[in-house]
Amino acid sequence: MKNQPNHTFNSRFVDSHCISIHSHPIKNKILRAEKDFEPGDLIFQETAVTAIKLSNNNKNDESIIFSTIIESLPIVPLARNLIYGAVHLASLSSSKLDLIKCQFGNPLDKYLNFTPEGQAIAALKYYFFEIKKELSISDLFSCSAILDLLAIWMTNYSTAGPQCHALYYYWSRMNHDCKPNTHHRTTGYTTVDNQTIPIRTVQAIQKINKGDELTKSYLVGETNFQPTQMRKDYLSMHYHFTCTCSRCSTENEIISDTLMYQYKTLEYQIYNKQISLNDLLIFKSKLSWTDWLNYSISQLICTIAASSSMGCDNTRYHTAIIECALQCIRRLKKIYLQSFDAPTNEYYSIFLADKYEQLGDFLPLSDSQKINSYKEAIKIRKICQGKSEKIDNLNDKIIQAKKVTSNNQISL
Ligand SMILES: C[S@@+](CC[C@H](N)C(=O)[O-])C[C@H]1O[C@@H](n2cnc3c(N)ncnc32)[C@H](O)[C@@H]1O
What we know:
Elements: E1 19-24, E2 28-33, E3 42-47, E4 50-53, H1 68-72, H2 77-90, H3 94-99, H4 116-135, H5 143-156, E5 158-159, E6 164-167, E7 175-176, E8 182-192, E9 195-204, E10 215-216, H6 228-239, H7 246-250, H8 257-271, H9 277-285, H10 292-307, H11 314-338, H12 346-362, H13 369-383, H14 388-411
Parallel strand pairs: 7-10
Antiparallel strand pairs: 1-2, 3-9, 4-6, 5-6, 8-9
The chain binds S-adenosylmethionine.
């Protein structure tokens, strides 16, 4: 039985000849292709049903609920943003709310207090009455009703640019696969009722036949390349299901509990800024090169070095950081080349291209590999569809690097 929305919101880009929603005994709702798609084909574009803008510049905007109480809660920014999401849902009309009442993942008591989700849940429970007073939430909403909305928001929202979170009618109903057949991104914004609403574009990254389920990956960034067991743990923790996709059934990278524990501890320490880049490098130097943990630490080091969030001293650690980036490239390349549909499968290409760009950023201007690394990223992104804005950015970096290099030569 096909379900289509009653068009009380702007879904003008969605063509019902391309996709439809169906019921499924385990996954509840699923999104299906209504025709064949080739890799790179546009499947659908849709405007979000609702979105919140999290930018501080908009504090005075009536439509965005910023509260002194929420801002002063002792929680991390992501937890605060999740509460804004839940409270925002409570402010919607019932018809809009009905449209986005997707299935939610975990029972809320599963989240640990130190995670952003756990902090959002705890803060909402403890401060509900103050928050309710401050934000004039309707009396119809009890604390448990708002917590239900938080669960819906947490399971189904997506970031649309750094300062915008949104829920979609179709996109939010797509289920997970560790090797998804679609890729999605925000391709613009529109204004509805004075609100900025993002537009999401979904493209095929594999050959899709009419009747196939359309899937996306719920894994964040590099977690896509974590071993099966870790991916499954993440999905069970956040989305409350056991992944049985083809990749989970075929890949078999065994990770010992000790390694897993060490990794989780490191993640926790990094998250809480309890470990320095130097500590990480020392820890890594004691691991064998074949350890999965060794590779994962290289990923963490690259991320830290790229954001410099831990006061990383680039000069002192340069060689080690570059070696970490190269190690990540070697591993991603291996996965990329093993993938039967590479290089058309954007799923693998994105990560490899990003890593080449990161390596280019890390390399000093005097190193000829810097520009080559950017060129490699361009080559891969050119194969992917719809990455032109990132290619422009890389071309700018190459021009910049060439300019600085030639200026240096002149001054010599
Ligand atoms: C974003 S929603 C997806 C839409 C959802 N199926 C619905 O009916 O609203 C995420 C939830 O869908 C279910 N789900 C997603 N992918 C799944 C999968 N591969 N296997 C089983 N359940 C899945 C889980 O319950 C998860 O918490």
